[in-house]
Amino acid sequence: MRAPTEAFAYRYAAYGDADVLQRHRYPLPAPGPGEVLVEVISTAINHMDSFLRNGEEDTWYDDPWPRASGSDFAGIVRRCGPGVTTMAIGANVVGHTRTGARASHIVLPADQLVAKHRAIEWEVAGGLFLAGATALETLDDFRIGASDTVVISAAAGGVGSIEAQVAKYRGARVIGTCGERNLDQLRQLHITPVKYGEGMAERIQRVAGGPITPYIDNYGKDGREVAEALEVAPERSRSSADRREVELRLLRDDAESVSHAT
Ligand SMILES: NC(=O)c1ccc[n+]([C@@H]2O[C@H](COP(=O)([O-])OP(=O)(O)OC[C@H]3O[C@@H](n4cnc5c(N)ncnc54)[C@H](OP(=O)(O)O)[C@@H]3O)[C@@H](O)[C@H]2O)c1
Fold this sequence. Notes:
Quinone Oxidoreductase, Chain A, domain 1, Rossmann fold, 5-stranded parallel β-sheet, 24% strand, elongated, binds NADP nicotinamide-adenine-dinucleotide phosphate, quinone reductase (NADPH) activity, NADP, oxidoreductase, Alcohol dehydrogenase catalytic domain-containing protein
């Protein structure tokens, strides 16, 4: 098979819905010192990508236009620049970038990649970074363990489903909120499901039968009210706004943040 000479990426030249994304073609870029060229096999769409694209999130408001999109990807290393010793051509990798993952190829420093475990399918690997790292940061922050009864909202969603499974793995008792259609999915993961909506705090109280340590809200809106109704200490509660801060920290591209995120 002949190596491609062209790459493409989805970019946008104005804030808006997904239809502002346009496919741009350009010559296949070459990696510089310490960089690699990765062929992107799978990438994810996170809420944060949409917030950045529609202007709701203005942290990088002065980025030049047109702008790239997407932070998570998994792919195959196709070229290594001078001085790269940690990655080889053909390596299957999971990576992250502040933006630009929605592309056929991406050039980035080799230290923004880790090896993709062979048991992880491409579709999963390409969506692991932001949701997975956000979930881990939150659980690490609370030092979740066997003595905890954790309530996780939107527990069948992107971040919530990883939080719920890792909290369970760490020995906690996990109660997850979800819609009717996901009650069985959570049960199969040994997570106690509670349907969201009117009366949710009472339903949580009933199944918890004791103090909640902590309450992790992924959904926002009624999250604060529910945490208060459950009498969760403020230092044992995480809001959707806290989650935004965690996600933004994981996307920052200064050397220390990148190293932490990798
Ligand atoms: N503050 C921020 O900057 C920020 C950053 C990222 C995400 N978010 C928000 O966080 C939410 C979840 O994002 P995600 O990526 O983890 O999940 P996701 O994969 O987009 O799924 C959305 C989840 O929200 C759940 N949900 C819907 N209505 C709900 C309600 N009334 N109460 C509790 N949960 C409800 C859904 O449950 P079912 O599927 O079971 O119906 C689903 O699991 C989104 O609404 C997103 O906008 C906020």
